[in-house]
Amino acid sequence: MQYHSSLSFIPDSTIALYYIFVALGALYILVRFGIGKTTLLIVLIFWEGLFDYYSEMLGFSPNIYKIVITFYAVILFGPNIYNKKNRNDLVINVTFIFFSLSYLFTHLFNSESLITIFSQYSYKYSIPFLIYHGIKDICYNTDKRVFLTRFLYHILFIQVAFSVIKMLLLGGVMEFIVGSVQYRGGGVAVAFPVIGICFFWLYKNGNITGTSWIKLLSIFFIAIASVKRTPIFVAPVIIGLLLIYVKGQVKLVKVLRYMPLVFLMFYIGVRTNVTLNPEWSTWGSFDLDYVKNYAIKKTFGVDNLTDLNSVEANVARGGSLFLILTPDRLNMNDFKTLLFGHGIGEVGSMKYGRLIGGGTTHGNYGIDHLGDVSEPVKLLYTLGYLGLIFYIFFAHAIFRIINNNRFKFVLISFFVIEYFLYYNTTLTNNAMSILFIFICLYSNMAIPKLASRQASKYALNQNPSMNTQGGFLSRRNNLVS
Questions:
Q1: Distance CA 33, CA 53 (A)
Q2: Is a pLDDT exceeding 50 seen at residue 480?
Q3: pTM above the 0.90 mark?
Q4: How far is CA 175 from CA 20, 186, 229, 265, in A?
Q5: Per-residue pLDDT tens over the stretch 168-208
Q6: Per DSSP, what are the bridge partners of residue 3?
Q7: Taking a C-beta distance cutoff of 8 angstroms, is the pair 154, 136 a contact?
Q8: What is d(CA 3, CA 375) in angstroms, rounded to the nearest whole number?
Q9: How confident is the model at residue 225 (pLDDT cuts 50, 70, 90)?
Q10: Which are the contacts of 208, defined by CB distance < 8 A and separation ≥ 6?
């Protein structure tokens, strides 16, 4: 198995053949579940990579796809904004309105392309807001909940199949192309495996046994096929938290039972990721010291975490977080820019390429930093402190949906890691936002059912005369057959 660092190493005909399989996958999903209004929108969003590929091949702007999707989502879900379903609606609406106003003022103060401004706002920020209002009624509409659960389940595992096809057809692993979701780039593969694992755990009502383990671990393959490091560290921990912390009381016997599995996932992830082993091989050696040193260097640009305070100009995404406290290094030297940023025009259109710093000599974006920046820094640079703060408030409003505090803690922990050290694909990639928001809503039905089953087992242990015909278990109805 080889590692490909660029699509240029893959013949165009091979990539075209891969996307024939991707197109057939979309056709399969629509034939199986029907071409309804909501199913069509979700498929269009999850198959964004297919549209990006054909846009590049045919010379069309991908903004056309984004504009069409946005208008379709507004028509389909816009009226639901005023249809209050729960206590979270007002908080979500208010926080999103404040963020939208800060976005508007940012672009009143900066002369930029209206197409770029609109496409970034509508597709990157408004779609998750509309998705929430489109599916928030699954708490009350059982038929819709069951249908969407099975629908998203099939989409999730067809993405696993695409990852296998990519590895076999393209001749190895590569950061580019993540299923049908992403074409140029692989950032979404950071969030996809973790969110997918959380979804599958809820789908099974926390009952992972037998072949369910194979299915759950196959989701992790998305990260392996896309050479992503973060899920290798995070996904095993998330699985452990779901099975031990969220599912019930933390017991030593449970910890000992699942530790070998967690370590096995980490072990395989390290050996198959070319950047995490000294040989740079897809099946290299397992060297914990090398993994630790590489992770620190890659994230913060230093050899040891104790050196952070002594570094004048930190590098990489983790080091870029210091820029939030030193906005002058982002060329934010006046009050207006501090509040509303530089605007999103140059960054959204990638006028100077990716938003990266050029060290003390400054890059084209005027950032006194070396290398990539994390999502909060990007948001601060483009939309200012108001945009950054209001967006965090909006994200928090989404988390308020979840009633179970333990499950909320697990998702927030992952979001903090992915948001502050990566690109926030959890909410800004629309396919991930669909899956993520659905999980937040669905957890309020699935987790109480899990607790009910645990209470049933406890009652049976205390009273063996109780059986599944007349006890708690007879009243347990699975959300998904």
A1: 25
A2: no
A3: no
A4: 20, 5, 11, 19
A5: 999 888 888 999 999 988 899 999 999 999 999 999 988 88
A6: 173
A7: no
A8: 27
A9: very high
A10: 201, 216, 243
Task: Return the structure tokens found at 339.
Answer: 């509040």
Q: What average pLDDT does the segment 6-12 reach?
A: 85
Query: Tens digits of per-residue pLDDT, 423-477?
Result: 889 999 999 999 999 999 999 988 876 665 554 543 444 444 434 333 322 333 3
Q: What is the pLDDT of residue 87?
A: 79
Assigned token pair, 49: 């990579």
Give bridge partners of residue 174 from the DSSP assignment: 4
Q: How far apart are CA 7 and CA 455, in angstroms?
A: 53
Q: How far is residue 330's CA from residue 352's CA, in Å, rounded to a whole number?
A: 15
- Read off the tokens for 244: 């031990």
Rg of the Cα atoms in the chain: 23
Which range has the worst mean pLDDT, 95-104, 202-211, 236-245, 293-302? 293-302
- The pLDDT assigned to 354 comes to 72
Nearest alpha-carbon partner for 179 in 460, 187, 171: 187
